[in-house]
Automatic annotation (TrEMBL):
Primary localisation category: membrane
Species this protein is from: Ceratotherium simum simum (Southern white rhinoceros)
Primary role: Putative odorant or sperm cell receptor.
One Pfam match: 7tm_4
Name this protein carries in UniProt: Olfactory receptor
Stretches assigned to the G-protein coupled receptors family 1 profile domain: 46-298
Keyword annotations: Cell membrane, G-protein coupled receptor, Membrane, Olfaction, Receptor, Sensory transduction, Transducer, Transmembrane, Transmembrane helix
Family matches, as PANTHER family: OLFACTORY RECEPTOR 52I1-RELATED, OLFACTORY RECEPTOR 56B1-RELATED
Residues that span the membrane, as ranges: 37-56, 65-87, 107-125, 145-168, 205-231, 243-268, 280-300
Similarity comment: family membership: Belongs to the G-protein coupled receptor 1 family.
PROSITE patterns with a match to the protein in the record: G_PROTEIN_RECEP_F1_1, G_PROTEIN_RECEP_F1_2
Gene: LOC101403332
Length: 325
């Protein structure tokens, strides 16, 4: 699994990398493959159902549902970028991946992560306007504003990820081609280079910290203002309804940010303390768990989506039963 001495910078597009999976947990790979397959199936079905319901139902065209639709689509991209290959590694040992496929995977994983954190901020802003400025909701969150927010989120992700991917992919990989990870994660790839990986690692750490840190600060400020407004409502029912909606959003954000931030900073600060298999598991779970649980949380906690899903299911069942009779 070592690249030959003739391999150099100009030939690196021919390289093949080998993903180890989760170092030290090879005996559990089959169970991990089964668990990931179940979670991926739930993620695909749940997020596809949300996208379909929101796109087909004209009553679900409010900004919150549009952002949720995009979030579900991003979750599909994020999970699909890594899970099929991970399942292949864990179940059959097919751990080879070409140079181009590896860096394409890395780009999509990290770009989707950057887009998702932006969407969570946009959804927090949507809830702030809906609860704190309800009379101005439609005037503030116009279709043009929503489009502008979406474009800014995508441009921000591309602006961050394109230089990072270029920096890493243009480093000379002339040593080991064994990646101690279950997908082409940036830090794991940077460790294989023969050049100094510190510039790209610092760029990744600083860029991620700025984006995630600023988003978390603004999200926290939004929900702080929301809670002040909610507890100022005279109606207990209105308070409970607002808290229920915000609670589901905050749960989704906790599922995304906590494992993600732990994964980023453990790789830097705790690499000599936290076992490698724990670091890899954290990086894997923060890509898969939110994508799996987001549609469950939103479909169960959002009344309108729950009602539309139930209505569609009943419609399909009764239509099939009538055709059969």
């Amino acid at each position: 699994m070592m690249l030959g001495p003739h391999y150099n910078h100009t030939m690196k597009t021919l390289a093949t990398f080998f993903l180890v999976g989760i170092p030290g947990l090879q005996s559990s790979h089959l169970w991990l493959a089964i668990s990931l397959s179940v979670m991926y199936t739930i993620a695909l079905l749940g997020n596809t159902l949300i996208v379909t319901i929101i796109c087909m139902d004209s009553t679900l065209q409010e900004p919150m549902y549009c952002f949720l639709c995009v979030l579900a689509a991003v979750d599909i991209v994020m999970a699909s970028s890594v899970v099929p290959k991970m399942v292949s590694i864990f179940s059959s040992g097919d751990n080879s991946i070409s140079f181009g496929a590896c860096f394409t995977q890395m780009y999509f994983v990290h770009a989707a992560t950057a887009v998702e954190t932006g969407l969570l901020l946009a959804m927090a802003f949507d809830r702030y306007v809906a609860i704190c400025k309800p009379l101005h909701y439609k005037r503030i969150l116009t279709p043009q504003v929503m489009l502008g927010i979406s474009v800014v989120i995508i441009i921000r992700a591309i602006t961050l990820m394109t230089p990072l991917s270029w920096m890493v992919s243009h480093l000379p990989f002339c040593g080991s081609n064994v990646v101690l990870h279950s997908y082409c994660e940036h830090m794991a790839m940077a460790k294989l280079t023969c050049a100094d990986p510190m510039p790209s690692c610092l760029y990744s750490l600083i860029g991620s910290s700025i984006i995630v840190g600023s988003d978390v600060v603004f999200i926290a400020a939004s929900y702080n203002l929301i809670l002040w407004a909610v507890f100022g409502l005279s109606s207990k029912n209105a308070q409970l309804k607002a808290l229920s909606t915000c609670g589901s959003h905050m749960g989704v954000m906790a599922l995304f940010y906590l494992p993600g931030m732990a994964s980023i900073y453990v790789a830097w600060l705790g690499k000599d303390i936290v076992p490698l298999h724990t670091q890899v598991l954290l990086a894997d779970l923060y890509l898969v768990i939110p994508s799996t649980l987001n549609p469950i949380i939103y479909s169960l906690r959002t009344k309108q989506i729950r009602e539309r899903i139930w209505s569609r299911l009943m419609h399909c069942l009764f239509d099939h039963s009538n055709l059969g009779s």
